[in-house]
Amino acid sequence: MDARVATLADLDVVAETIQLAFADDPVWSRAFAHPDDRGVAAFWRLWLEGALRYPWVWMTQAGEAVSVWIPPGGDELSPEQEAAFKRLAESSLGRRGASYLDAVMACFTEAHPHGEPHYYLSLLGTHPAHRGHGLGMALLAENLTRIDAEGAAAYLESSNSANDQRYQRLGFALHGRFNLPDDGPIVTTMWRPGRGPEPSPIRRP
To answer: What is the CA radius of gyration of the chain?
Structure first.
């Protein structure tokens, strides 16, 4: 997998991939149901700007697939970005939509484990034009190799049950489930314990 760390210079490409990848997602298509495309793009750009504070947003060379990680001890948004996110929600979604989005985010926060330090996979998406070639899972597998080298654990939320088995094949196990408000979809949380790097083969004289 030819992957690299994304920077702010890649924001346009990364944001387009994530926005299109999650356009039909059971959770986020409902949470962002009212804004036009420009409004939805503003949400994703702000979210990604928060993640790009860390060197853990990964992309294939042309941005066909993107993974967004928050490293141990990190936050998805700075306090200033959180305030901007709330203002954007109110202006784009209206009071009722902003209230729903706030309730959705509260569900994610409540379910998130806060014991053992871990890498948090906030987003993983493949551009629709490049789906079906395993790029997203290959990028995730590459990232996990780096996380394993640190002996760190990893956590994610699966907003689409069709992906659960794919995550399980990479070592994630069921951690829990929660329902979103107003009879919203079920989100599955998954945990991958820390592992050491693969041992080097023993060379015999």
So the answer is: 17
3-state secondary structure of 188: strand
For residue 133, what are its two tokens?
A: 């070639």
Which overall architecture, per CATH, does domain 3-192 show? 3-Layer(aba) Sandwich (3.40)
* β-pairing verdict for 153-158 and 118-126: parallel
CB atoms within 10 A of CB 144: 20
Task: Give the start-to-end residue ranges of the domains of the chain.
Answer: 3-192
Start-end of H helices in 52-134: 79-111
Q: Which tokens in the block code for residue 37?
A: 């495309």
Residue 190's Cα: distance from chain center in Å?
12
Taking the C-alpha atoms of residue 29 and residue 32, their distance in angstroms, rounded to an integer, is 5
**Structure confidence by residue, pLDDT tens digits, 34-80:** 666 677 899 999 999 999 999 999 999 999 999 999 999 999 999 99
What sign has the CA pseudo-torsion 57, 59, 62, 65? negative
Question: The tokens of 82 are what?
Answer: 């959180």
Expressed in angstroms, the distance from the first to the final Cα of the chain is 33
